[in-house]
Amino acid sequence: MSELFDAVDALVASRSPLPSAGERKRLRVAHGLTLEEVAAALKVRRATVSGWESVKKPTEPRGPEREAYARLLRKLAELYPAQEEPAAPAPETFAATPGPAAAGPQSADHVPENTQAPAPAPAPDAAAPAAAPRPARTTGTSSASRRPAARKAAPAGPPAGSADPRFENGPLAVVDVEDGKVWAYCTGGLVLDVPAKSIPALVDWTLREARLGAAKLAGPGKDADPLLVLTEAALERYGLPVRLTEEEKRAGRLPEGHKVVKQLARAEWKLTKRGFGPWARIYRPATGSDRACVQLCIPSWNALDSRHWGQAGQLPPAELARVLGVYASRVMTPRGSTAVTGLELMTALHPPTRASEPDADGRRHSEHNPGSLGKDAIDPMNWPPCEVPDGHPVLKDLPRFHVRGPGEKLFEEAYDWARPMTDAECTLRHLVGIDVNMAFAAGANGLTVGLGEATHVKAPAFDPKLPGSWLVDLSHVDLSRVKVGKEWVELDGSLLPSPFTPKGERPEGPAWYATPTVAYAAELGYEVRPIEAYVRYDNGRYLDGWYQRLRDAYLATMADLGVHADMEPADFLDAMEGYRDRDPQLAIVVSAIKATVKGGLGKLRERPRGEGWRPGEPWRALSRPTWRPDIRAAVISRTRINLHRKIVKHAAFTGQYPVAVLSDCVVYAAGGASPLDFLPYSGGKPLPGGFKLGVNPGLVKHEGTQSVLWGEEVRERFDAPDLNLARYIKDGTVTDIDNGE
């Protein structure tokens, strides 16, 4: 009899009711689950789950998978009830019990009774984007126990809300005005009614009622302050200019006498030193552990630089909230430009201080957090002269127009090298560019960097594990004969860039180098004898967490765009074709993540920015613990060396040499138009230690292909036999010679 019962149970399970394909996807995305996670739990392929969610042509699960899938969806439906519509429900829906409303002393007249959130934008892995329509709203009477607004439709990006009830409405909101009403568009399709009539009231409402913000990224760190993005309509509503005047642009802020700045002062709100500019921070001094701070972002004042954020500033509010929300959930809530955010992410992951163990009276005190850069900047006069840029206070005694050479200045920069093509290369048809994904992030991964001040050492023995700057003569390293692994190989050194200089020229004598560069000279089989060095005995892998968070953000967003880490080379190249068009909003996030890497590293050696600065005087950035040009130099050194190592291995195995190298892009002459026409793959596996196609940081993608005739014509037209073709390989457009500065 039990066998009959089992058979009946199996028969019932085989017809377990399922919601529509669109609802399946909504529930998965609402809980932040990827296709891969669902597939792994149900022991099916990713493509199978994708087929179950296909709106155009859904497939149906069968057998035990159907019962398990139905159970998953039922549980998700309980957590994320479907939006009730006035019209009759579709025949294929789940009955779900709405979750309990969270308690909280929220003002009721801020909430329209039947506010509908925007219709969900496509889930991150949707094949094509669709703009979210403007929400329809109906206002009504609310009880005093209601929240500012109720969570509604499916998330358009990261799920609405947060595990932390303090920040249940997400990290940020885009504030807009429509039909005379002020609305705050949050992540996940949530819309809040904003009652505030002024900027001080808006700040107060944000901190008291909006439940915006994000939890800290590291144990001793600080929670992220809520971010408000003000549209042009919101600026007009709150008495702010839609555009800054030329004078205000130069100053980067509104004048102190502006009425809104005065309103804030009267309400006892303060502005940081940057004032009321595109990324204003409004705060009151912290009392104990309580923070009262709101970050503003004003796109029409160029807060979202189009070089990094594309057309994000022109998106409708709900779509802009989605873009910034995905970035905030995967990287961090923006704190300013992508460069500023990249630097702030380092500090958020390695807070400078932590609470000590209890003392004899049971009290805890603030103490240095091991592995961080601390809370105090290095004294400008304690910097090694070789590591600082021109105009630094430690160089104030140098003659005014003195130009420091390689023996006085550490010059670790990215490649900008090219050479004329050989006769054999000119017989080939194509120039193919490959580009290293997230090259500088990969260069930071696992890198040991200094945490504290440097120690000056005369005639030191070189230690490849000790971060620092070394004065050493590497002119004897001959690229015609180098070690690759444990074997000596013969190469044509004239066709290779030197690994020791950005321009690829062979050094002529002693020069300052970061540790990875000197270590590579030894790896190639040559003796190194430093003359002197500035080394850092207090060191660690400070950037590991930073790299991992940015890597994960990049890979997750690329996966949403259909480019996955486990693809075969040909499938990867196909997936990269037009990936930005699949969801232009998520493509913006990818660009912003890349800019966060490069900009954050650039900020480690920030130069003076006006401020009436004169050479020899300190500038504002020097007061930051994160002003660390030595760390920037080490990352760039390692990135350049990583690229050169691959170039050498490729040359040793194939006899092919690069025609041009620009930063993380390498151009080869090839018989075909695809990277697969010159990259060696044996049995589907790449050359160990060489170039490998893939989306992971450190692997390469196709940058562009042009004809050899194009390359020769361009160089002849500009009378520049060494013109760096890598700069133009992407689309072949050369309007004028660019020196790369």
Task: Summarize the structure in short.
Helix content is 29%, strand content 14%.
Describe the protein's architecture and organization.
With 741 residues, this protein is an alpha+beta fold. Helices cover 29% and strands 14% of the residues. It is built from 21 helices and 24 strands. It has a seven-stranded mixed beta sheet. Strands 10-20-21-11-24 form a five-stranded antiparallel beta sheet. Strand 1 and strand 2 form a beta hairpin. The radius of gyration is 29 Å and the shape is globular.
List keywords for this structure.
741 residues, alpha+beta, seven-stranded mixed sheet, five-stranded antiparallel sheet, globular
Name the beta content range.
5-15%
Question: Could you say which overall geometry the principal axes of the C-alpha atoms support?
Answer: globular
Question: How far from one another are the termini?
Answer: 82 Å
The tally of strands reads 24
The major β-sheet equals:
7 strands, mixed
Q: Residue share in helices?
A: 25-40%
The low-pLDDT segments are 84-158
Structural class: alpha+beta
The neighbouring-strand order within the major sheet is 3-2-1-4-7-6-5
State mean pLDDT (0 to 100 scale). Answer: 87
Instruction: Enumerate how many helices there are, as a single number.
Output: 21
Rg over CA atoms, rounded to whole Å, is 29 Å
